[in-house]
Amino acid sequence: MKDPRTRMASMILLSCASFAGPKAAIASMAWIIVFSERRLKIPSPWAFLGLFIMVSIISIISLGIGGISYFIRMTSLILIAVWAYSEIRPGEILDTLVWFPGGKTGFELGLIAETAMSEIRRIPRDFRMTRTAISFKGKKLSLKEYIPVLGNILIITLRRADEQGKMLAVRGYIHGGTHASKFDTDKKDIIGLFFAFATILFALANLVTYL
Amino acid sequence: MKIECSEIRFSRDGFNLRADAEFCEGLHVITGRIGSGKSTLASILAGTEKPDTGIVIKEGISSEILSMQFPEYHLTHMNLDPEIRSWGVDAETVLGIAGLICPEEKDPMTLSRGELKRLHLACLLQKKYDLMILDEPFSSLDCIWKRKFKDMMNEIDEGVRIIFTHEKRVLPEYTNLWTISDGLLLRVE
Fold first, then answer.
1. Which of chain B's residues have a Cβ under 8 Å away from the Cβ of A156?
2. Interchain contact, B76 vs A136, CB within 8 Å
3. For residue B137, how many other CB atoms are within 10 A of its CB?
4. Is A67 within a domain?
5. Treating both helix axes as pointing N-terminal to C-terminal, what angle do A4-20 and A22-35 enclose, rounded to 10 degrees?
6. What is the number of structural domains in chain A?
């Protein structure tokens, strides 16, 4: 899918569908398999595995009280998050939010989202650097050191965002802005969005049956 | 004791780096403009980045350190005392060298970038390494501290020491001067 608008709309629809019930969650996972172009390129396999293990543990604990349903729905939500994160390109959120809701609020929201995304993308590199530094100290990253290391990375990230904000203020940024969004839509975008709608309708139909 | 990079080639997003060099015992300064590939070469020499082709050969080196440009990455503890001790050095001595008058339980992340750099260099220079790769060791330091650390580096007379810097005014006494120009590492005669 090339158009970030259809991708974001699909993401919202599929997330709602996955949350609604296990059948729709399975349908959402099928949608990901069909429409994702990066099926085998998980951005951070360890983070993904960590989330998956966490969900699995909670599911096992709650077996008999909806544990399996929880597992399917959460797995689907994780897959959707991984897909959305891996397919998004720098500038696309700004493009989309300037398109809707528009130049002032959309531009600001887009700018905040782009800043956040660029910082999130830098976290794996920060973590790699820290691990390198620890290995040069002749140590291995143990569980005990994870808290200060992750805390430091969080502070580094916040400081960078703060510096970026100050730089924008120094350059005279107050609010809103102009940005010409450009989108490239192809057939796959329309088909993908159509099936995302179909998935949410399927989820709603299931809910109606349930009621 | 030496480190050699043999036919190193590294490419990323249109950026190309080539290096064929031998660094013997002594101090080597590698200069180059910002974005010329200094940090990349430092990482390749330290073994934390893999080149596309070529190899790095280390002979007689049993201990090494890569000092990264941003000292925050070297922090592994939430208090100064355990942080300094994690380097295997004495906290009081290091704080004295770094000119830091603060309680040992202070969180190192609350120090300024310059203070952190001083702390990091003070820890590092207290130890002996066969290979020291220092990426921009003088960044974030004022002239006084640049000179102090330059003098401390001059006192080290063992091992291979490679400094990557774009600093031109304050440099320790070097054995060889190198430059990275248009992605190629060259020795300046």
1. 70, 72
2. no
3. 25
4. yes
5. 150
6. 2
